[in-house]
Amino acid sequence: MIIIAGTLEFQDSHARDEATKQSRTLQLATREEEAGCCAYSFAPDPCVPTRIQVYELWSDEDSLSAHFKHPNYVAMRDLLRSSGLVGSETRKYRINLAEPVYDENHLPRADFFTANPLD
């Protein structure tokens, strides 16, 4: 699994809100049309009025590579660049273990307690 997480900064809150609104169709298309896309969300940050929080979850490198060549990606990139984007910081993370946050007693756990690899 691969997580992409980051932030996009816009010139003002109106530009951010318009980019969010205009990208809805592309976000939905990516989720529904692209193999290996488990999550794809570009959402307004509730604490910073000029920021979008980025969260993507991909099943593998091949899916992510195909996404970078897909018309949805190209259209999203072009939309964001033309919408008052002034900065961005995104990173990708390769994930090999996933567990619930809460144990069987509904208590949050910071440790990895089930050791179920994602292979």
TrEMBL record:
<dbReference type="InterPro" id="IPR011008">
    <property type="entry name" value="Dimeric_a/b-barrel"/>
</dbReference>
<feature type="domain" description="ABM">
    <location>
        <begin position="2"/>
        <end position="93"/>
    </location>
</feature>
<protein>
    <recommendedName>
        <fullName>ABM domain-containing protein</fullName>
    </recommendedName>
</protein>
<dbReference type="InterPro" id="IPR007138">
    <property type="entry name" value="ABM_dom"/>
</dbReference>
<dbReference type="Pfam" id="PF03992">
    <property type="entry name" value="ABM"/>
</dbReference>
